[in-house]
What does this fold into?
Amino acid sequence: MAEITISKEEWQKLKLKVERKYRELSEEDLAYTPGQEDELIERLMSRLKRNREYVVFTLKKGLANLDNNRL
It folds into this structure.
């Protein structure tokens, strides 16, 4: 089970932050359906060549304050 839960509304804002920071990610890499957090994390781990802790930390950091542009 994923360490985080992301709603569809949260993902729309978080996705923009992730796209800005990691320009090499495609729409396919960022495809997300609520409840599929593990698949998203695994895909980002593979594409970014980072470990699970880094990806989860980055997503949590982005979720902490969705209204600013920082990730």
